[in-house]
């Protein structure tokens, strides 16, 4: 299922700077969450496993099954929304997993995704959004009038945006030391600009639901492109500083405003 991925020098230097010792593995097949038996196979490639575990009381009763499994003591690697490259610190050393879906993507973009994973590992942020919101996830659930999967998607997006506020400072400094990675970061942002700018119209016309719009807008934060309202309020130092409390207040105000329209 797993095979060590060789890294070019430009990525080795980023790994050494942000996540020294992290192992990069190609996966034989795509996944959102690895089946337990396959996840445990990682134990053959690392020194130790330490499953993440959080209080079940942090979750609303109707939380998605995969989220409930993640907070339990089960060894759960990967969750919906993780994208083509995922990472975990439930292993020692940490592991970065590259899914087959990256095949066909430009090499420069795949390199950026790997570099981004190293930078995120170096931030020592929680692996999933539940470690960010903790017991306030119930408050977010009350603020977001969507079904459990929609709330999950919004929560994952908000957490992605909060991380992006931190990683983009690193990416912006790559122009001198890692120009190819900086170009890939900038190019990916350029490709998002028109889609992000059109989000309010797409939501108003019913072409995009609000959870999808939040996911796209928050994914754009790390590329430092301009966001339209109401997402622009997430591209702030206040969000970076106050994290979950700010995200919940944003959700409350945003959905109240939508209800009034």
Number of extended strands: 6
Give the uncertain stretches in residue-range form. Answer: none
Overall outline = globular
Helices and strands, in order, run as: EHEHEHEEEHHHHHHHHH
Report the radius of gyration as a whole number of Å. 18 Å
* Spatial order of the strands forming the largest sheet: 1-2-6-4
What is the domain tally? 2
Q: Which class of secondary structure composition applies to the elements?
A: alpha+beta
Instruction: Report the biggest beta sheet as strand number plus sense, adding barrel if it closes.
Output: 4 strands, mixed
Care to describe what's here?
The chain has 12 helices and 6 strands. The strands form 2 sheets. It has a 4-stranded mixed β-sheet, covered by helices on one side. A two-stranded antiparallel sheet has the order 3-5. The chain is of the alpha+beta class and 261 residues long. The mean pLDDT is 95. The longest helix has 25 residues, at 148-172. It holds the Pfam family DUF7089.
How would you concisely characterize the structure shown here?
The protein has twelve helices and six strands. The protein is of the alpha+beta class and 261 residues long.
